[in-house]
Amino acid sequence: MTSRAPALDRIRVGSAPDSWGVWFPDDPRQVPWRRFLDEVARAGYEWIELGPYGYLPSDPERLAAETSRRGLRVSAGTVFTALHRGPEVWEGTWEHVARVAALARAVDARHLVVIPSFWRDDRTGRVLEERTLDAAQWRDLARQTERLGREVRERFGLRIVVHPHADTHIDTEENVARFLDATDPELVSLCLDTGHYAYCGGDSVELIRTYGERIGYLHLKQVDPDVLARVRAEGTPFGPAVAQGVMCEPPAGVPALEPVLTAAGALGVDLFAIVEQDMYPCPADRPLPIAERTRAFLRSCGV
Q1: How far apart are CA 19 and CA 99, in angstroms?
Q2: Domain, as residue range, for 287
Q3: For residue 76, what are the β-bridge partners?
């Protein structure tokens, strides 16, 4: 058995509905929520995320009962935002955020993963807005994200972790650095998704070394470099790229996860490392074997 390195003692591994092909609250092509809970526990995970609001039960007592009887705990909820569009979107954004944050807090989660809106439709590829933000939009994004971090902390006791994501405005090394440099570390941390960051050309280990104090949460995934090269060359939107297998089962892709975990462990802070292997849509029998193999692989990495 691989011994657990002291530097990795504070990393808590989990998985998410995303690793079971779940992207939407309700979709007949997705695994039913009870099956997800049964299988994620069977695969050896203790921690989960809520996934899209409405997929898992939104009644806190029922959700707590369903998770606890399977030995599961919730690490975070997830929201999508478009805060670069200015103060006029705040009211609608907060209505959604507050609903998710309340549920997350009720089941003792401590984080809220914040994903920026897509600049092109993730399924059709239709361009929704400019790919690059102007200076005013960057200011709105920074100030409103800080406001979100403050409000979520004060009202719900949660910490927001912003998730750089393919086909959004927070994606590449340059844009991630610009966002971090523009926001208050006391209010805004980062959810480093190793797969999305690699998808957009970033080096996760270097990001951890450079902005270690801003890393508040991890999503673990890998990309298939051959598929990535093809979808980049063809300008494929993120959704179809996932359907083509751009996100792959570790350790078959990049980045190598053991150096990422080692770098994260060296920070000496408590971190969640949640497995998220994008594969929507997928056959219902596919996720569990992958999840079991992935959990075994991560144990071999020391977590």
Answers
A1: 23
A2: 6-300
A3: 49, 111
